[in-house]
Every structure is written in structure tokens, then in C-alpha cells.
Amino acid sequence: MFGLMLLSATTGVWAHHGWSSYDAEKVVRLEVPLAEVRYRNPHAEVEVDHQGRRWQVILAPIQRMEGRGLRGDAMRVGKQVVIEGYPRKDGTPEIRAERITVDGKTIELR
Q: Taking the CB of residue 80, how many other CB atoms lie within 10 A of it?
């Protein structure tokens, strides 16, 4: 019984971190200014406008990004960035970012 409860409790977390809703066969590369920035845990997110749509971009946890040299003050609305990652399979304008380039420095997020 306890094992079943534990499995049930962790399924949602695993599904989110399994990233199965993203198409890892299709890489999207956007060179865009940041429209919105949410630099908070459990992971940072930004929004960008591209081809008439507002895209949500899922970044990495704050601690990982800062450990790799990307501080929150470098991420501000209007800042030009390059984002590379995987789009959602269902067509929702959302990307799981694998890397982001800010001020000429590329940060690997995964």
C-alpha cells in the first residue's frame, strides 16, 4: 500500500521533469528580445514574441543558471537573446530551452 502511495505521489513530478510533452526531434532557435522575465524557483521562465505568437520558454533552476554564470540581473525585458530548445508536441507556444545566449555568452541549461 505504501509503495502505491509513493508511486502516486511522485508520478506528477516525474512527468513534469520527464519532459515527454516536448518534441526532442525538432530544435527551435529564436533570436528575440525578452518580453517577460520570471526569475524564480522551481525554474526561471521568460516569454518572447515570435511570428505573431507569445512563446513561454522554460529555463533551468535558478541555482543551476547562476552556477553556470547567468545571474538574474542579466535577464531583463527588452534584452536580446538567442534561445535554442524543443517545442511542445501539441503546438502550444512553449519551449523547453536547452541553451540561452545572453550578452554573447551561451549557457547550457540541461
A: 11
